[in-house]
Design brief:
Elements (H helix, E strand, L loop, with lengths): L2 H20 L6 H24 L3 H19 L6 H18 L1 H24 L1 H7 L2 H8 L4 H4 L6 H21 L5 H23 L3 H34 L6 H33 L6 H28 L20
Helix pairs in contact: 1-2, 1-3, 2-3, 4-12, 4-13, 5-10, 5-11, 9-11, 9-12, 10-11, 11-12, 11-13, 12-13
């Protein structure tokens, strides 16, 4: 494509579209029809330029023009309860379901790493000595020690809110910065290392059963949310390397929008795990009852993902915004 010739041929149409968009008075019927036609043609021009002769300055100008025209044509759209329902029943579970080939292996590998690190810490006193002095480790692992009192050291509501905020922030970082890969791997390793230290120290003190009884009620759902965020973040980063049949920009935009939506959904999931950690884990319920609540929450989430999410994904739902809300593009030849 000769860009100069293309611009000369269509500049008048772009200027006319810009002039119509700047009109302060109400457009006549003929002008409104002209606006729609010019919007469609300009969107086609933008797509052709992006695929054949990308020019940053021209692309920026036409992108702004198309966005303004699209807003004028479609009108301002307000979020409604229908959007919330669609997101909770279709968009979010479908996005998690579609990412299962990333977050399930991430969960399995991470769990194995945490267990192996925990065994290594438990089996090597010299490693334990690098974590803390003998007196400090006894204070951590003894009956009524810091591992047990940690969950009841603050008012339940405040503790739950703090846990929720911290975990939701970590999940959001994994999703938003997943394109860079390294932040995701670091957050994942940090979480597994903290888990491994608890496993190793409590196991060496002969109190692994107590630790498991404390971590499972909230940890099942909490760690699943972390694994989903990390796996989705890694998939987003891999999309930059291998976008598949889609143009790289389109693939990143689609997967990135779905990832941002998942950050909101996972915040809700982590709210539930935070409530369990604040109110159930330190409660006086028997260990089997506390673990049962955690297992029930985990099974409900997995059913939500695999039943609702699987059905929505098979129906074409991706977790991205609706087609009407996406950028206007047209098919172009490779």
């Amino acid at each position: 494509m000769d860009l100069d010739v293309f611009v000369s041929a269509h500049r008048a149409e772009w200027d006319r579209l810009d002039a119509l968009l700047r009109r302060r008075r109400r457009l006549t019927g003929a002008e409104a029809d002209e606006l729609v036609a010019l919007y469609q043609r300009t969107a086609t021009h933008l797509s052709l330029i992006q695929s054949s002769a990308p020019d940053p300055q021209l692309t920026g100008r036409l992108s702004q023009l198309v966005a303004r025209a699209r807003s004028a044509v479609t009108g301002t759209r307000r979020a409604s309860w229908r959007d919330v329902t669609r997101f909770l029943l279709h968009g979010f579970p479908a996005a998690v379901y579609r990412a299962r080939h990333w977050w399930v292996p991430t969960a399995l590998v991470s769990t194995v790493v945490a267990v192996l690190l925990g065994w290594w810490i438990a089996a090597h006193p010299e490693v334990q000595s690098t974590i803390g002095a003998p007196g400090e480790l006894r204070n951590l692992t003894r009956p009524g020690g810091e591992y047990e009192t940690y969950y009841s050291s603050h008012p339940a509501a405040a503790f739950a809110a703090q846990v929720w905020t911290n975990n939701a922030e970590a999940a959001a970082i994994c999703l938003v910065l997943g394109v860079f890969l390294l932040p995701v791997l670091w957050i994942l390793f940090e979480n597994m290392l903290n888990l491994a230290v608890g496993i190793g120290l409590m196991s060496s003190a002969g109190r692994l059963d107590t630790f498991v009884g404390l971590i499972l009620p909230h940890g099942l759902l909490e760690l699943t949310a972390v694994f989903v965020a990390a796996g989705t973040g890694l998939r987003l980063g891999w999309t930059l390397v291998d976008p598949g049949p889609r143009p790289r920009r389109t693939a990143l935009a689609e997967e990135g929008r779905a990832a941002v939506g998942m950050a909101i959904g996972l915040a809700l999931v982590l709210f539930v795990s935070g409530a369990i950690e604040g109110f159930v884990t330190p409660s006086g319920l028997p260990t089997w009852a506390r673990i049962g609540i955690g297992v029930a929450a985990e099974l409900l989430f997995l059913a939500y993902v695999y039943v609702l999410g699987g059905r929505a994904a098979r129906g074409g739902e991706t977790g991205d915004v609706e087609a009407a809300e996406r950028s206007a593009t047209v098919p172009t030849a490779a």
